[in-house]
Amino acid sequence: MNALRGILWEEVFSRLRLWEFLQVSVDEAVEQFRQQLQAGRLGVKSTSSSDFKKELTILQDPQHRRFGSTVDLNSAFDMFTPHSKSPSDIRKCCLCFRKGLEELNLELYKEMNHHAQQATKCIVENVFDERISDHGPKLGPVTRKYPLCSRYFIFPFKELTFDEEMQLLEQREKACHFLAHDGFVKENDLLRNSAEPGSQVYLRENCSVRVTLSSFVMERNQRTVLTCGPI
Fold it and tell me: Where is the Glycogen debranching enzyme glucanotransferase domain (predicted)?
C-alpha cells in the first residue's frame, strides 16, 4: 500500500499541480502594482509582510484558471506605501509586496497539498477495503470493469492519456462538458450538491459514487442540471 501511495503522490497529484488553481500570478500582480505606483497611486500607510498576510486575501478566480486568482490592490496600496515616488523606494516597496504574495501562494500550496494527502489516503483505504480486506469483495486485479477507484467524472470524449487530459482541462469549450457522478458523503447533508462552489468532496475523494450521474454546466450563462441513467 505504501508503494501505491507513493505512485499516487509522485505520478498523479504532483503532476496535476492543483495548487496553481488557487494561486495568483506574482509577476503580473507586482507589475500592475508597480505601474500604478509610478502613476502616482499611493495608499495611506505601510505595513510589514507579516501584517500583509493577515489582512490581504487572494480572491479566487471564478473561472478557476491556473494562476487566475487576484489580490485586492486597493488594500495593497494602503499596506505597502513607498516613502517617496523615487524609483528606489518604489522598487523596495514592490519587493516587499512580492514577498508577501509569495508567502500567500506558499500557504495555498500547503493547503492544496493537504487536500491531496487526504485524497491519497481515501484512495488507498478504498483499495484495501475492496481488494485486500477479508470483509471486502476482494475484486482482485485492476481492470476496466473494476478500476483502481471509483470514477468521479466522465466526459464525452475519446480515452486520453494523462497529459492529453491535462490539456483538455485548459479548453473551456470542452471542459464544461465534464460531468460529476452523484454520490453519498457520510454525515453530510443529503440535499447538498457536493459539486457546488465551496465543496471539497470531490477534491478530497470523500464521495461514495452512486449509479446516477449529475453535473452542473454553463450554457448560455444559465446553470442546467444534467441527469443521466445508470452507468
Answer: 3-205
